[in-house]
UniProtKB/TrEMBL annotation:
The lineage of its organism: Bacteria, Bacillati, Actinomycetota, Actinomycetes, Bifidobacteriales. It comes from the Bacteria. Its cofactor is Fe(2+). It comes from Bifidobacterium callitrichidarum. PANTHER family: TRNA N6-ADENOSINE THREONYLCARBAMOYLTRANSFERASE, TRNA N6-ADENOSINE THREONYLCARBAMOYLTRANSFERASE, MITOCHONDRIAL. InterPro entries: ATPase_NBD, Gcp-like_dom, KAE1/TsaD, TsaD. It is found in: Cytoplasm. GO terms for molecular function: iron ion binding; tRNA N(6)-L-threonylcarbamoyladenine synthase activity. This is tRNA N6-adenosine threonylcarbamoyltransferase. Required for the formation of a threonylcarbamoyl group on adenosine at position 37 (t(6)A37) in tRNAs that read codons beginning with adenine. Is involved in the transfer of the threonylcarbamoyl moiety of threonylcarbamoyl-AMP (TC-AMP) to the N6 group of A37, together with TsaE and TsaB. TsaD likely plays a direct catalytic role in this reaction. One of its GO terms (cellular component) is cytoplasm. Belongs to the KAE1 / TsaD family.
Amino acid sequence: MSEPIVLGIESTCDETAAAIVHGRELLSNVVASSMEEHARYGGVIPEIASRAHAEAFVPCVSKALADANMTLADVDAIAVSAGPGLAGCLAVGVSGAKALAWASGKPLYGINHVIGHIAVTQLQFGAFPPDTLALIVSGGHTSLLHVEDMPRKIDVVGTTLDDAAGECFDKVARLLGFPYPGGPHIDRHAQHGDPHAIRVPQGLTQGKAGAAHPYDFSFSGVKTAVARWVESEQAAGHDIPVDDVCASLADSVATVLARKAMRGCEQYGSNTLIVGGGFSANSQLRAKLLEYGEKHGVEVRIPQIKLCTDNGAMVAMFGVNLVEAGVAPSAPDFAIDSAMPLTKVSM
Ligand code: KG4
Ligand code: ZN
């Protein structure tokens, strides 16, 4: 069979997206976001997001097909994010994808959105080398994976014991008064601050806890330390040096992620590190990973920003992997899984 053509559909959170991938080539990529509708509430409101998905689904899919100069008849398969994510949002994308699959007679794959975040790197850097390490940093996930054979053998090496890195940024951002999502605001302010201005702890890197959890992460202590510091400065009547707070936070988080990822590469004999997830758009993390990669002789594959945040290309690309690997399509009545574990690549 020639290289598969897959339509990918995404609706886990506040982005409705559709894309067409042919082999490892991106033919179209359409994203509609309801982010602005949530900003004034300080977080994603599931009911608003679900309604926005219902409105954007048909226009997004139609445009993705039109941009690729195709109709549904031209695709070999359809892939859709089946989880993890907001249940009502997933239900819209999955129901829509099932309708398209039923009407066109095409096989349908309900895929794991989080794994999609690393799969997408193939569009930019080509296939995964065997036995590689992957760092996933999204809003809800911070995990190190050992990808022995994509997509057949993927093991979790480490994960966050509490908050994800993105979550930690979003919480500190809220404290500093930035609108949702706060991560990009911290990034921007951090670019003008001193990363060593404030001492921010690096969770699970030292002593017994560090030894017991060499590849796990903990960011809730980081968040608490920054919050305490800000509160005590405010109580003392001092102005908060926002840029310095952001730079110190970003440096601490990026350093822990880069160190643990490099250690994992050493342990698993991988000279490639695949990075994905919304938080991989963070410029401090990107710089730190590239710097550490250079030092350790590891090629770091971080996708361009538009492929880091939620999109349909990641879903379509992962669909191509499943088709190529001969994985059976999902049953027509497969359910969504809002808490889909990393150990499950598809339904
Ligand atoms: O992967 P993603 O788009 O959504 C999930 O699947 O969870 O990740 C969203 C997360 C949010 O926490 C957001 O604040 C963070 O990624 N983020 C950033 C940046 N861009 C997005 N965090 C820091 N710096 C950025 N430039
Ligand atoms: Zn995501």
